[in-house]
Structure to design on (170 residues):
C-alpha cells in the first residue's frame, strides 16, 4: 500500500468517538433581556428633551461669525417678514404643593404690549438670554423700535440669530 498504515484510519475514528461527548441542551430565556431593552427604550423616550419648535419660521440673514445660542434659559423675540412680533419663553407653573410643570408661552404682540410681555418674561427668569430672530425681509423700523425698547429696559445685551454663510473658496 502506498501512503500509509491501514490501521491508522480506524484508530482515528475510535479517538473521535471517544472525544465527542453528548452536549447538554441549553435553553436561554430571552424574556428578561427583551424586558430590559423595552424598559431602556421607554426610559430614553420619556427623559429625552427635544428642541421646541420655533414660534414662527423665519429666514435668518447671513453672517460670517457664529455664536452658539444656549439651549435653555432664553427669551426669544421673533420678527416675521410681515413685521409680526412674537415673544417666546418658558414658564414654570405650579398646580399644587408638589406638582410643577414647564409650559412654553408664545405670544403675538404689538410694540405697545411688547414691553409688558418682556417684563413678564424677565420677572420669571431674570438671568435668561434674550435672542432676537428677525426675518431677512423684515423692515428695519420694527427691529429698531424693539432695540430701543430693550435699551430703555436696560437689556442692552442680546443675541441676534443669523445663519452662518459658507466661507468663500479661493
Amino acid at each position: 500500500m502506498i501512503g500509509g498504515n491501514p490501521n491508522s484510519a480506524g484508530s482515528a475514528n475510535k479517538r473521535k468517538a471517544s472525544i465527542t461527548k453528548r452536549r447538554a441542551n441549553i435553553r436561554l430565556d430571552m424574556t428578561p433581556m427583551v424586558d430590559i431593552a423595552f424598559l431602556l427604550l421607554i426610559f430614553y423616550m420619556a427623559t429625552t428633551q427635544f428642541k421646541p419648535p420655533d414660534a414662527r419660521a423665519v429666514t435668518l440673514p447671513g453672517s460670517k461669525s457664529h455664536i452658539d445660542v444656549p439651549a435653555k434659559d432664553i427669551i426669544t423675540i421673533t420678527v416675521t417678514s410681515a413685521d409680526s412680533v412674537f415673544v417666546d419663553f418658558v414658564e414654570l407653573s405650579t398646580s399644587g404643593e408638589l406638582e410643577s410643570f414647564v409650559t412654553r408661552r408664545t405670544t403675538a404682540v404689538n410694540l405697545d404690549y411688547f414691553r409688558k410681555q418682556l417684563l413678564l418674561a424677565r420677572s420669571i427668569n431674570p438671568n435668561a438670554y434674550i435672542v432676537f430672530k428677525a426675518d431677512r425681509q423684515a423692515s428695519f423700523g420694527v427691529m429698531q423700535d424693539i432695540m430701543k425698547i430693550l435699551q430703555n429696559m436696560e437689556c442692552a445685551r442680546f443675541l441676534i440669530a443669523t445663519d452662518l454663510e459658507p466661507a468663500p473658496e479661493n
The beta strands are 62-63, 74-79, 85-94, 100-109, 129-134, 159-160, 163-164.
